[in-house]
Amino acid sequence: MQTINLLPHLDHLVQHGYAIVPDFIDPATITELYHYAQQLSPTDWQQAGIGRADQYTTNTAVRQDKIRWLSPEIASEAAYLTVMNELRLLINYELFMGLFDYECHLAHYPPGAFYRKHVDAFKGRSNRILTSVLYLNPDWQANDGGELVIYADDGSSLATVLPQAGKLVLFLSERFVHEVLPGQRDRFSITGWFRHNNSIGGVIDPSH
Length: 208
Known about the structure:
By secondary structure, the protein is of the alpha+beta class. The chain has one domain (7-195): q2cbj1_9rhob like domain (Jelly Rolls), CATH 2.60.120.620. Helix content is 21%, strand content 27%. The protein is built from three helices and eleven strands. The protein has helices at residues 7-16, 27-39, 75-95, and strands at residues 18-21, 46-47, 66-69, 101-109, 115-118, 128-135, 148-151, 157-161, 168-172, 178-180, 187-195. The strands form two sheets. A seven-stranded antiparallel β-sheet has the order 1-9-6-11-4-3-2. A four-stranded antiparallel β-sheet has the order 5-10-7-8, with no helix packed on it. It is globular, with a radius of gyration of 16 Å. It starts with 6 loop residues before the first helix and ends in a 13-residue tail after the last strand.
């Protein structure tokens, strides 16, 4: 996989708490990931939920996507995990964020599916530090919808991101309320979190 120079985007991340990176990975790799997601069977996906541990539940009034957690044991998934680990090391080197590891899943939003306003980590209650979203959708147009909207502290829209193939979004997990708007087409992405090591008894992300 080939990736672009990220340093200008990391500067934006430092200044604003988020960064939008067009063409993060070469088009051929994005196409491979897109086709891989498309060919998965229905049993490879699970209904996405909200909350963690004993508070985990599914609620399609809030969230309607289906997900598949990536594993290093599967070659098509391991290659992407390797790229994101290299990104983790780069961020630690440039920004001293102390990111310990990375977890991610494929996400499939069927036409009309959405994810209402939420935050990825509540302050002091999770070790998720930095959220990443990579889009896999070819030829995505403005009228296809499915945008990611990131909100400022005052509730105004800070950024509206069209989910175009190869685009990577990074933002601080505790800081930004965000949502996924309904789209007109099947929408595929890889969503992940760089994390700190707040381990208790060998459990990397203990429930609170």
